[in-house]
Model the fold of this input.
Amino acid sequence: MMQQDEEYMEDVFGDLFTEAGWIPLVKIGKNQLDALLEYLKLPGTYSFFKSGVSDALEQIWYHFPEKRAEIETIFGELLDYLHDSTPEENVIDTLFNGLLICNIPDLILKQFIPQIEKMYKKDYVDSSICGSFDEVKKKMLNRSQSFKWKRDLKDLQAIYDSFTTPLKPLPGVHSPLQSSQTVIHTSKKVGRNDPCPCGSGKKYKKCCLRK
Done:
């Protein structure tokens, strides 16, 4: 499924994959880290499918500390692989590379600063996603080990509950349906392909989505 294109992702998942796709990838991938790395090396895969994998790797690092050495090895190997690739191989994806470089400062992996700099020098990074190299470097050097970007590893019920709310009974009125009925949230959310609310003129997914 994750080797399909953007249209497939929009039709099947919408915003759900961006918000929660990393969760099943953590659960099925934490003991198959090599498979996650091999996926990220596939040519022509859609940026936001790949970003779900890099988000999963970041969260595996937080939730399963015994995996940290493997995760660091994977990020180092991936950065080398992307830097050494050529545009003809259909692997260079500046949008994904920018999203990937958003993950690495979250883990304060300062040893990768030289590899990240090489990526910038080859124009392999969309700096509108993660900022300039100097900004990325400053962020990595200034963050303390107490910084955590750990997210809740929700189960399916918790994800469902985040989209629905039980109906509250009306005062003085009893209905046997009220205990089981739910209402779907209808408040307007910014879609990934909508204009970014910051006013940049870019699509939300290419601007403030990661923020």
Notes: The radius of gyration is 20 Å.
